[in-house]
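hey so i finally got around to running the thing on that chain from the lab meeting. sorry it took forever, my laptop kept dying and i had to restart like 3 times. anyway pasting the input first so we r on the same page abt which one it is
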Amino acid sequence: AVNDEELKKRIAEELALERARRDSEAQKRRLKQEQMYVRDEFGKLLERERISSNEHLTRAILRERAATEEERLKAQRFARQLEEKDRELKKHDAYYKEQLARLEERSAQFYKVTTEQYQKAADEVSARFK
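ok and heres what got predicted. didnt touch it at all, straight out
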């Protein structure tokens, strides 16, 4: 009877140990599944963040390219305006040089005529009052 009792007790302990082992293994499987789920979710989250970062970076690059292109066009427009002003200034410079040459020529002619008239008048006065 003692052996039976002891045997039943031992069987009950072994059954309890077996149940505990199975529960432990089931818990380990659930833990692994949960870890895999967390890894998958974390991987998905990281992928979404990477995609979002790439999209943000792409938009920023496009904005910079557009701004650079706008600046390049602006610089070209200013260069054309500068060239136009330079041509206009050269045209004005040539015009004023031409006008100055004409005025100098007229002045020289006027001086020559005036000098000749003065000399003629001086000769007449000199001849008259000799």
